[in-house]
Amino acid sequence: MNDTLKYYEDNAEKLIGSTAGVDFSRIQNSFLQLLPPHPEILDFGCGSGRDTKYFLQKGCHVTSTDGSEKICQAASSCTGIKVKQMLFQELEETNVFDGIWACASILHVSKTELYLVLRKMCDALKSGGIIYTSFKYGEFEGNRNGRYFTDFTEISFQEYIRDISEFSIEEIWITGDVRPGRGDEKWLNLILRKMDIHCQSMENT
Question: Which residues belong to any copy of the Methyltransferase domain (predicted)?
Answer without folding.
Answer: 41-129
